Predict the structure.
Amino acid sequence: MRVGILGSGLMGAKLGTIWARAGHEVVFSYARSEQKLEKLAREAKGKARAGTPADAAREANALLLAVHWSRVDDVLKQAGDLSGRVIVTCSLPMNADDTDLVIAHTSSGAEALAKKVPKARVVSAFGTVPSEVLFGVFAAKRKASRPSLVYCGDNESAKAVAAELIRDVGFDQVDAGPLRIARYTEPFTLLIARLAYEGDGGPELAYRFERFGRKG
Ligand SMILES: NC(=O)c1ccc[n+]([C@@H]2O[C@H](COP(=O)([O-])OP(=O)(O)OC[C@H]3O[C@@H](n4cnc5c(N)ncnc54)[C@H](OP(=O)(O)O)[C@@H]3O)[C@@H](O)[C@H]2O)c1
């Protein structure tokens, strides 16, 4: 797949690197320095390169949106026409000092994003785990028991693309349903962040759902 990274910070840099190492063609874009993007592309080793958001969006099978909520409009403007594109968003609708959601309960960041780009196909994924755990999950990919990762969206083919990217990182994808379920996954992330950053166990934290009582 060709994957464009819109926002090459904590989340975008790591996920882009992992996807390049998993064999995808990755374009890193949107950081404050061009040198940072080039270094990321060099160090990712696989088929990775640095570019503008418009380069990242061109012919991409999937785009990862990984910017602070306050930067969403700017990066979308730079990316240009996103008609038909699959946008996998991990961006949470956080306030300026990252202490609370500015959209919740009656809508979600993912739904607000889908309204901004009505011709794109938005999937919410990866926003429920801290960036610090991503390389660990990738390294443990061959182990029998994988951590879960919830995702949701309204377009089935876009969700299939997201599911492949989720598996490539090393998670078990958990289809949570339509995009409006992001109203629940986004606040869930604040719980994960609390455990990751305020607890004693450190931020390399993922979660796993277990089912009991299933017949057969
Ligand atoms: N970090 C996590 O563990 C985590 C977990 C779940 C969800 N999220 C969500 O994922 C999204 C991304 O988070 P993150 O932690 O990866 O953010 P981040 O590290 O701040 O990355 C954002 C990227 O945007 C770039 N950027 C910011 N302002 C810019 C500007 N004016 N011009 C060009 N580039 C600019 C940054 O450039 P520089 O590289 O130069 O700084 C960086 O590459 C957020 O919405 C966050 O809520 C984060």
